[in-house]
Amino acid sequence: MSKNYFELIRAGVNTTFQDKGRNNLYHIGIPFSGVMDNRNYLLANRLVGNKLELPVIEFAYQGPLLKYSGDKIHIAVTGDVIFKIKKKDYEIEGNCYESYQLEDGDEIDILSTNKSVYGYLAISGEFDLKLQWGSCSINTKANIGSNNGKKLEHLQKINISKINLNQVKKKMNYLNSKVENIRVLKGTNFNYFSEEGKKIFFEKEFTVSKLSDRMGMRLEGNKIENIVNTNIKSEGLLKGVIQVPADGNPIIMLSDHGTIGGYPKIGVVASVDYDRLVQISSGSKIKFKEIELSDAETLFKLYEMETQNLLSQI
Q1: Is 50:81 a contact under the CB 8 Å cutoff?
Q2: In the chain, where the domains are located
Q3: Which H/E stretch holds residue 65?
Q4: Long-range contacts made by residues 259-262, C-beta under 8 angstroms, separation at least 24?
Q5: For 32, how many CA atoms within 13 A lie in the half-sphere containing its CB?
Q6: pLDDT tens digits for 194-209?
Q7: What's the CA gap between 169 and 176, in Å, rounded?
Q8: For the segment 129-171, what is each residue's pLDDT rounded down to a tens digit?
Q9: Is the dihedral of CA 93, 98, 104, 107 positive or negative?
Q10: 144: Cβ–Cβ under 8 A, 6 or more apart, which residues?
């Protein structure tokens, strides 16, 4: 066993290893998976001096309580997260987007996300993980990825195979922005829905259901009427596609979505809004706003440029 490791005193609600995900496997039914909030993932790795593609710990709502054993190491937490670092004689109220040094016997207690869903913990080094199809990302629905495709568990040990020798404290000022409207493009089955159904989709608020998870975000609200057929021949799905089953309540496909589906697709979330979409917690209200493809492409390019600018500042 490695001399540097974490022990999970508390596993948290939905704690997994994630990286950028796996490519080009849709034809065998394997989705990308990977981190839900890509920007916060990248910022976490940069804050501890890592390569940007290295795995991190992703958690939802309540995070893990981890006890560290080993040589000095830096950690960073990103997202909108409440956490503490417990030293032998005192506690530190942690700040997101700031790196901290852990020593042997220290604990990091990730209490909760704050009016959001996902947070990220990166270390200045590399977790000892097995890759599957070039990625460690865990998909618990299919038991794919590192950790035998399962969530992290109580009392589990997480070995660290490598620690960066050049550890420099880093900090940045960053505020997670909220989305008033989720921008969407019309889906391939947009005309399956009545004029009233289309009006409801773009003008009414929906509530995020408690049944949402990494596979999909279920919405509740006014029913969207289908006037053609509530089922279609199964077709390929993409992250962000919005399906409407027979009950009229939309479902947004997220990172662990199935690769095919037979519900009509009314829209697809513009990539620029995906990171912020996944942070909308259950019980919150969302609205959709239609944009054109050319606008979606421009907005995403600007978002990517902004992300690269943030990374360059660290």
Answers
A1: no
A2: 5-163, 182-311
A3: strand 65-69
A4: 259/26, 259/29, 259/30, 259/31, 260/29, 260/234, 260/235, 260/236, 261/234, 261/235, 261/237, 262/231, 262/232, 262/233, 262/234, 262/235
A5: 15
A6: 999 999 999 999 999 9
A7: 22
A8: 999 999 999 999 999 999 999 999 999 999 999 999 888 999 9
A9: positive
A10: 30, 33, 132, 137, 138
- Quick one: tokens of 297? 């492409």
pTM attached to this predicted model: 0.95
Written as one letter, the residue type at 276 is R
Shortest CA distance to 138 belongs to which of 28, 30, 259, 260? 30
Quote the CA–CA distance of 194 and 298 in Å, as a whole number. Answer: 30
Cβ neighbours of residue 136 closer than 8 Å, sequence gap 6 or more = 17, 18, 19, 55, 127, 129, 130, 145, 146
- The three-class DSSP label of residue 29 is coil
290: burial class by Cβ within 10 Å (0-12, 13-18, 19+)?
A: middle
Q: Side chain identity at 134, as an amino acid letter? A: G
Q: Contact 9/66 with Cβ under 8 angstroms?
A: yes
Please give the span between the terminal C-alpha atoms of the chain, in angstroms, as a whole number: 33
Instruction: Please give the structure tokens belonging to residue 136.
Output: 């460690």
Question: For the segment 65-109, what is each residue's pLDDT rounded down to a tens digit?
Answer: 999 999 999 999 999 999 999 999 999 999 999 999 999 999 999
Nearest to 18 by CA among 115, 163, 188, 147: 147
Decide if 53 contacts 78 (C-beta within 8 A).
no
> What are the structure tokens assigned to 279, written together?
């942070």
Contact 169, 17 (CB under 8 A): no
Residue 218: how many other CB atoms lie within 10 Å: 19
CATH number of the 182-311 domain: 2.40.100.10
CA-closest candidate to residue 118, choices 47, 23, 13: 13
